[in-house]
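Hi support team,

I've been running sequence recovery on a batch of backbones for a student project. Most finish fine, but this one hangs at about 90% for roughly twenty minutes before it completes. I'm not sure whether the input is malformed or the queue is just slow. I've pasted the structure tokens below so you can try to reproduce it. Let me know if you need the job ID as well.

Thanks,
M.K.
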């Protein structure tokens, strides 16, 4: 970014900050108090040790900002997010089925339609104490901050989280839920009476109810099982699928249960947020794990800001600018704000530290002294002008500028 040879001769950021200044700031970047961090390191190996202490101040501020600046619409989703890293640290995870396989795992609650990241927490590994129903249960209940979020939401989750116990607990908090479910989950109906046949056709479905929960099996390319506490079994909707009949492939409308239709529509909130972050991520290479989180927190802040800006523009009946253009305008405004702050904080030069022509008295005739430049040249010329810093008399007229000559030879 600071190279001057073509094609890298960019005026920005070189015209606003030198490379050495940027590197000095980056190398000095810390997200917590260094002395407090040293005290925390002394507790390593004890229950009082905080593995995330290095990022805790900014981590808490970002989560609080995400919670307080936006109220999600009814449909929300919870899923995992991977922040890419190969750092050798205890809570780095490997997830085989994710595009980013190595990194830090975050559990994220996002609005389904816009992708706004409303709440999240960093998974610290098996060393963290997980009580009660297990990680899938506690992670959902931790993210669903009912005191701030409120009630009446429709939550969509995948089969890692879905369980009858979780959905029943959410129902007691007036929150409905829907998600794919593993048939080995405790509480899943064991009956085979209403099961799909082995050679079921695409679009076949079976369902049953247990208490207030609906369990649906639907045949797509393979069998899909969904649990819901909000949907009807089937209301007559259909979806387009490619079906092979008589050796020919063609599109066909096949029936789809309401729960699976809405699951496909609203489950992708976290994936949408991940995609928007990856489009223009600020993440750079670093050997410090806490700086990786710093980059990701900046990404979350910028993407959430763009979503708020976009929703506000749509609410006013305007066409919102693109994501890329929003980032460019944001960068320009941040640079202007920083320049204005520097200019306001810079001390104004005082008369005692700056060379400026001044009169000895209130007027030009109050007092005169011999000009030091004229005196050196053998002339005795008196002048009412003197230098405020050097405190010497100097001529300053239309025909002679000893003030300039004196300072040029210094």
């Amino acid at each position: 970014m600071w190279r001057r040879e073509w094609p890298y001769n960019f005026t920005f950021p070189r015209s606003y900050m030198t490379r050495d200044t940027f590197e000095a700031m980056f190398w000095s970047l810390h997200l917590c108090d260094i002395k407090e961090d040293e005290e925390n390191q002394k507790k390593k190996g004890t229950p009082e040790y905080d593995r995330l202490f290095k990022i805790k101040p900014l981590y808490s501020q970002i989560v609080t900002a995400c919670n307080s600046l936006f109220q999600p619409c009814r449909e929300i989703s919870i899923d995992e997010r991977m922040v890419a890293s190969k750092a050798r640290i205890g809570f780095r995870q490997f997830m085989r089925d994710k595009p980013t396989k190595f990194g830090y795992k975050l559990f994220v609650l996002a609005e389904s339609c816009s992708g706004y990241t409303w709440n999240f927490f960093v998974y610290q590994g098996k060393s963290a104490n997980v009580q009660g129903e297990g990680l899938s249960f506690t992670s959902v209940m931790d993210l669903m901050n009912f005191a701030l979020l409120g009630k009446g939401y429709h939550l969509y989750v995948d089969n890692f989280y879905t369980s009858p116990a979780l959905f029943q607990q959410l129902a007691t908090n007036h929150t409905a839920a829907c998600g794919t479910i593993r048939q080995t989950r405790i509480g899943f109906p064991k009956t085979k009476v209403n099961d799909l046949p082995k050679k079921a056709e695409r679009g076949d479905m079976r369902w049953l109810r247990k208490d207030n929960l609906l369990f649906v099996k639907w045949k797509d390319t393979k069998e899909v099982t969904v649990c819901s506490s909000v949907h009807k079994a089937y209301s007559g909707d259909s979806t387009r699928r490619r079906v092979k009949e008589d050796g020919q492939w063609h599109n066909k409308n096949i029936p789809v249960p309401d729960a699976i239709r809405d699951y496909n529509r609203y489950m992708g909130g976290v994936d949408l947020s991940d995609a928007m972050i990856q489009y223009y991520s600020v993440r750079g290479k670093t050997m410090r794990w806490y700086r990786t989180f710093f980059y990701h927190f900046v990404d979350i802040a910028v993407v959430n800001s763009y979503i708020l800006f976009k929703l506000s523009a749509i609410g006013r009946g305007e066409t919102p600018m693109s994501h890329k253009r929003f980032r460019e305008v944001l960068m320009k405004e941040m640079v202007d704000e920083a320049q204005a702050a520097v200019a306001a904080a810079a001390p104004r030069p005082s008369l005692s530290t700056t060379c400026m022509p001044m009169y000895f008295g209130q007027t030009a005739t109050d007092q005169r002294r011999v000009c030091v430049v004229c005196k050196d040249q053998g002339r005795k010329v008196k002048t009412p002008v003197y230098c405020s810093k050097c405190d010497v008399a100097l001529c300053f007229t239309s025909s002679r500028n000893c003030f300039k000559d004196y300072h040029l030879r210094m």
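--
Follow-up from support: It reproduced on our side and the slowdown came from queue contention, not your input. The first strand starts at residue 75 and ends at 84. No action needed from you.
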